[in-house]
Amino acid sequence: MAEVIFTYQGYTCRTWQASDRDVCAELVDAVLKEHALVFHPDTEGDLLTVETVYQAGCFWVIENAVGKVVGTGGYHPDHRGANAVEIRKMYLRSSARGIGLGQRLLQSLESHAFSQGFRLIWIETDKRLPQAIKLYEKQGYQLTSPCLATHGCDQVFFKDLVDT
Questions:
Q1: For residue 133, is it within any domain?
Q2: Could you tell me if residue 63 is inside a domain?
Q3: Paired strand residues for 61
């Protein structure tokens, strides 16, 4: 049974279930295509193994009022620090953007990570996702060195939760 994480303006954020696998992959593929980006197995493959990759973190989906999945987001421990995580797969369909839902999701992921003892958050993204970059900057994330390790990413942001 999925656990409700939060509700917001008719949307429900809940824990991922195995039955969400295909719909989440389709959602991420659609959002990437919308921004002229490509679903790449090396970087999007974690959607096929959520229960393994996100075991020490979390992975959530957001449904609209009729139960359609319109968003995803999660985090897992990251190699860039003992108490570090990387927020991944934070995507919203266009119908769910511009109402503060992304901000609520990001803040909830941060709070959850902090409650689990994590203190540093990394986010990799692409300059072709300006709404995402604007959100990260608004939430106090700092741009650091260019992303060279992840296919399809050219921006790396970090936030120290201790300083916030």
A1: no
A2: yes
A3: 14, 72
In this structure, which amino acid lies at residue 87?
I
Instruction: Kindly state the DSSP code that residue 145 receives in the 8-state scheme.
Output: S
Contacts of the segment 136-142: beta carbons below 8 A, 24+ positions apart: 136/106, 138/103, 139/103, 139/106, 139/107, 139/110, 140/164
The tens-digit pLDDT sequence of the chain (164 residues) is 899 999 999 999 999 999 999 999 999 999 999 988 888 777 788 898 999 999 999 999 999 999 999 999 999 999 888 899 999 999 999 999 999 999 999 999 999 999 999 999 999 988 888 899 999 999 999 998 765 555 567 789 999 998 76
| Residue 117 resides in a domain | yes
Residue 143 lies in a domain: no
CATH label of the domain that carries residue 49? 3.40.630.30
Q: Six-digit token pair at 42?
A: 């090396």
Residues β-bridged to residue 26: none
Q: Distance (Å, rounded) from C-alpha 104 to C-alpha 111?
A: 10
The domain in which residue 22 lies consists of 4-121
